[in-house]
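Methods: example folding runs. The two proteins below were folded one after another, and each record is reproduced exactly as written to the output file, sequence line first and structure-token line second.
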Amino acid sequence: MPDRLEETVARTASRREILEGPIIRTMFKLAWPLMISSLLHYLYNMADTFWVGHLPVSENASAVAGLQIAGPVIFFLMAFAFGFNSGGLALVSQYMGAHRKKEANTAAAKTLSLSIVFGLFIMVTGVIFSPALLRLLTSDPAVARAGTVYTRIIFIGMPFEFVAVAYAQVMAAYGDTITPMLVNLTTVLINIVLDPFMIFGWGPFARMTVAGAAVATIVCQAIAAVISLVILFRGRHGLRVSWRDLLPDWFWYRRILKIGLPASIGVSGTSFGFLVLMGIIGRVPNATVALSAYGIGDRFINISFVAIDGLSLAISTMVGHALGGDLRKRANSVVWTGTALMFGMLVGEGTLLRVFTPWLFRAFIPTQPAIINEGILFMSLFLPSIPFFGIVNGVQSAFQGSGHNTPPMIMQLVRLWGLRVPLSWFFGFALHMGSRGIWTGMLISNVLAAVLALVFLTTVDWHHKVIERSPSAAGEVFGGETPDLLPVPAEPQV
């Protein structure tokens, strides 16, 4: 198959579509596999919570609460390294927009190489330090014990997780979002099947409860990592790397780290903020009930973010391609259209989720009426704020696609440390409102964060690209042929 035809088959949307196609249609063409991938990712956690919630009544409340406090600890320890993937995403997407596939391949390989190094470091760090962090979040020994068992096993599989995530991001930056989706689909289905066998001890498996949920997850992460590497080494889906390409290269590492450092600071600062927020929730009088209700409700809300996650990465990809092709007006239209679209979608999804909240909680933890009632309270107060998070996501995607990650870093830190954490503490403890006050503080923080994001979008210049200029690169990549793009395509209709 000729290279160009093979590339077109592999990509979700062609380079011409990304740069010239109708914005909303192209956005969804890129985003729908990302949406499914995001949904599948959340199903990992949903499956764990669902099955653990059906343990005997003497175990399920502390087990679900243990999974909930484990999440922020895992996110906190891996967040700083994960943030550097944004540097690779910006480089790959902008090189593709500039018709420089050779450099895009190299950027993808070095992003993956760096992710493997980070994954090994986080594995060791997490196994050693996660128990101490968990003990800071709760005074309930049963909850801390369940969280410790789960996190230590999850961190053992961290190198696999880093490989799979880096692969999905560089492929999305290239323009292929279908292949990572298929990898996720395979592994999530395996995880959903394995969970009850390992948690309850069905068939040949021992009864492992919370540990079983973690073991099933890392088995599937390992499968995803192996499949991802095989696809990249064969190069049949656009990007191609070899074992030699994965060798350390400090020139490329410095480029990726320099672009991604602000994002890493922002993500790690955000994750630490969520860790502190979890500690605040863990100090209310009904801590186990509040943590369990928040954990289940948070997973439902994450499901409503499936479309937003896909659209956010699609916006970053389209912005990167547009700026790489010197189409600033196109990049601006993509951001405003995508942000408005996400806000409207979350209004509808939040309304629908509120209608089904009581039924969903009863399905997940049917033997705990106190948790069900607290969950309904949490969702009633917090759901009206989630459309504003769509605005924040849209603005951050603009900066990430352009490779300018300092404004998103500031937005993330202010949203958590300047707004959510202090407001949750103020309403929850200073005003003695308990868990109701914490949910209220979270509501207000999302609204104010959206206002801040719009201020950044309209006052900070994010339209200049981060790749070096190379006027002859397009001809080199295509063997001297004329690229299949107009130099300045007409602005498409939305």
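Second run, written to the same file directly after the first:
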Amino acid sequence: MTPLLLLDPASIRRSRFALGKANLFKRTIGKMISWLARSTARVSIAFLMMAGFNATARPANVPVTHATTTYKYLDIDGLKIFYREAGLASAPTILLLHGLPSSSRMFDALIPLLADRYHLIAPDYPGFGHSDAPSPDKFSYTFENIANVIDKFTQALNLNKYALYLNDYGGPIGFRLAVAHPERVTAIVVQNAVAHNDGLEEKRWAGPRAFWADRAKYEDQFRQRLTALQGAKARHIGNSPHPERYNPDLWDDEFAYLSKPGIAEIQVALFYDYQSNLAAYPAWQDYLRTHKPPMLVIWGKYDPAFALPEVDAYKRDVPGTEVHVLEAGHFAMDEAVDDIAAFMRPFLAKTLRTKPPISTQPASKQSMSKQPG
């Protein structure tokens, strides 16, 4: 006989009540455990989602410089001039002048590497990139005329002081600006641009000199060499031992640009005037020797157009010139943009006495948060 049967009725009732309370307690504990489990799961999911978003968020020490770049047009004497602009307008300005037959697009990778400290302006010349390209019978494509347009462009933007970055055609245009307004130039970065005959090796420049001497005889030959796809590729790669580092879009896009109606005629006309630069070399050299601007020379040693002795010519005119010869070609940013930025930042900080940091946030937010660098 079970112990329960030996109890009196009152004891049985008390036992049943106690058993009911125990079952109620168990059910309550079970509900609490179930609620806690669901709540924990929700919190865990929320945490994981937040962690996932945070994993893709920008680290605090990475500048948001790409967000400051804008793309604009400015009317100069009836010509629509396209330009890229980045960084705060209150920062020291760098005027980026492109080469043949490129455009301000060549600076796309460099601009974000400098925009946290500097105000960058990169125009397209008339006949290049997104700027107007009137036919040669409506606009005289000479380096003097293009320099005048860029001079007016800088004045329209109230650029009273600027450092110059000169590549290829940027040299003849930039040196004309420097000679005309030496008080505006705070520093010069030369990247494969010439101001001396030292850079024009006789064998390499025999073809252009023949074209200058007899345009009618050699113009078709020059045009074909200029506009050919293989010619565009050779301008970029040169004799670099690392062709795999070059993006084929570089010459494909260049070839597409040169194939646009009227562009080849513009480029032929302007290159015919390149001989005027050689006549101007003595004036540019006199500027360098007289004013001795702070200079940084960065040279891609696989350049098929300009010879390495040009580097020593700059050092001769401006003693103390900082020089870096890179494993790169004529358009050195194709292969070594990080190196170029790494050399420019300390040079400009020392030369322009940049007070770091200026800003790392989009100009539209006018943020002054501090970042190392």
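Comment on the second run: Residues 10-56 form one domain.
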